[in-house]
């Protein structure tokens, strides 16, 4: 007990030091932003912050806007946003040097002078990638991740790192080091996760372009909750070298790194910049596929599959309306909309996704928490990871008649043998092939479907892990998927919510209905999907949805 007390005391000391470092970073942000404002009182930061990325980039390239003006405008705004939402974990001090020493090159990169924000789990040289674990403090990255290296070579200026939930296996945004991040739209709501710090910062205008990762919706859910756009590419379209994973070595449910921004054109610009020779030479495992401009810029009518529900998570009235209204607008614009049905979603969620993530019974997940301070949102998964298989089997059998989904979660967290794991990989392959066959039989280009929304109250994601069904499906299939905000919750949606029962009418459905309440005015997005390696086509649909 004494040893345990001493260890915990040591961990809290590390937390205290990390918070002091964090506070010093914010003090420096305030100092440099105020200093620049005093020296250059005529600089109109409001107009700089109002420029969309393509326009800002154009002005930086033609020299009509100096990079330092843009940089200090965003440092000041980011500071204001983090004081309201607690979204920044680190200020990258050397970004100031990068700006001061940056002589305009003869051929500036596509992101020349653009300040960018980076998720905590993406390595930046000299800074911790904590993923919310105290044990990862004081262990700075030896070098930049490939993503950050390419961004810098394209002229971008990474200036802050942003908050995440402990372990990344959550769509809330809280850990014991940096605390809870709040939605910039309503402080009682979560910004989503695990790229929640990015969602809050970009949603409130403190960053014009950010990068996060996505294992079950970790880019798309914060974007949907905060009213911005995000793209989850095919797993290996962008390099993941130097990025910390939630469950290292897990290959069944495919993680991806991708951009977040206020509009689709900004996402496209970032993909153009990243899909370059530097990316392909720094990480030879990334296929050398440059951005296909002709696909993104095409105006030919699309054949679009769509569905309003996956028959696992009943959509909120606003989610359903978002898909219906978007479908109608797309049809009116000359596109062909084809109904699509997701078959056997229970099998996808439990037998493939949950079983894939926790194929070792949760041993790897549990190992990360050894000697660690535990955040409360992780308790269900930690408890199940510590539970022996015989008890999981018994509990699964007991809960099946009255809570079949809980039974499925418990059953899917049993230990798999090597033979079981090979069989699982084969099942995922077969399921992907069947899905693609169904897609091609309907001759589809792209898909339109819901994404969870509006933003749930803080603390609700830990009670509703199953509600990620709309997003995690496309990690399992490894399809590119993005989200675009299209509407806000209305009084009529709120009224209709009174009749919300859910597909299973279990405790999770009841809790989700409660979480959706009181959301009038909050944004709701739709999800756009394409086949593997067709990010440009996915962005094309997203741009069309945004335009309409």
Automatic annotation (TrEMBL):
EC number(s) on file:
3.5.1.99
Domain Amidase, chain residue ranges per copy: 73-539
Any transmembrane segments, and where? none
Name the chemical reaction catalysed here.
Answer: N-tricosanoyl-taurine + H2O = tricosanoate + taurine; (11Z,14Z,17Z)-eicosatrienamide + H2O = (11Z,14Z,17Z)-eicosatrienoate + NH4(+); (9Z,12Z)-octadecadienamide + H2O = (9Z,12Z)-octadecadienoate + NH4(+); 2-(5Z,8Z,11Z,14Z-eicosatetraenoyl)-glycerol + H2O = glycerol + (5Z,8Z,11Z,14Z)-eicosatetraenoate + H(+)
GO annotation (BP), single: fatty acid catabolic process
Q: Which residues form the active site?
A: 119 (charge relay system), 194 (charge relay system), 218 (acyl-ester intermediate)
The record's listing under InterPro entries reads:
Amidase_CS, Amidase_dom, AS_sf, Endocannabinoid_amidase
Question: This protein's superkingdom?
Answer: Eukaryota
Q: Which Pfam families match?
A: Amidase
* Keywords (A to Z) from UniProt: Hydrolase, Lipid degradation, Lipid metabolism, Phosphoprotein
Q: What class of enzyme is it?
A: hydrolase
This entry's Gene Ontology molecular function terms read: amidase activity; fatty acid amide hydrolase activity
Record's family? Belongs to the amidase family.
What protein am I looking at? Fatty-acid amide hydrolase 1
